[in-house]
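Bump. Still looking for GntR family transcriptional regulator structure tokens.
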Amino acid sequence: MASGELDPSSGIPLYRQIKEILRREVAGGIVEPEKPLTEALLLSRFDVSRAPIRQALQELASEGYVYRKQGKGTFPVTGARVQRPADVRSGALYQYLSETGRHPTGKVSGLERVEPPARIRDLLGLDPNERLLHFTRLISVEDEPLVEADVYIRAPDDFRPTAAELDDEGSAFRLLERKFGIAHVRAEHDAWAAAATADQATTFGVSQGSPLLVIETVFYTTGDRPAGWRSAVHQAEKFKYRFSTNQ
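Sorry for the wait, here they are.
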């Protein structure tokens, strides 16, 4: 069976086979981004009923591989797409991307000990002159910038990682836990939509004013001690954050 053909004898539902074929083509840049994936086109191609076509497109839309324009049809989403499940631990996005075969790359810059801005000092309940480890990390997937994070961490003075160590580990929080046994046990998040500034537009390769997703996080260690702060800016159209709530 060719990679773009269905195999009715495989036991795999037809909609799932169609979805996987289209997913590979969208992810591989094979389909034309300006050409809609119409039901008529897919019906002719796969020679099946409408039900598996609609199911495949619905799931591809849910996972961020296609999007619908009212009155115009369904179009492929170009570039990297990342869906973050609810059970991925805060600070472990890089690890999750690596483990799921997305081959992320990270770039750490501005690594230094600083006195944080007053707002962050108040959020973490710091002493007036307490200095924190500060750096910026840019995470890219498939050579496209996905997340830029501004990070402040409360850590022992002798925790002095290099940018290369942070790049290799993928998480300063995980490195701190491994070296000093200081674990972050919970986190609180605020999330909102924002328009890209001129600098952010340059970083992400988008137009100024394009939508971005901002997630601000306060990390806590055992004993509910505030231990770190992060503001992570995401490309909104390429990142889906899945979460659950208890009623």
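The CA atoms of residues 132 and 155 lie 7 Å apart.

Edit: fixed formatting.
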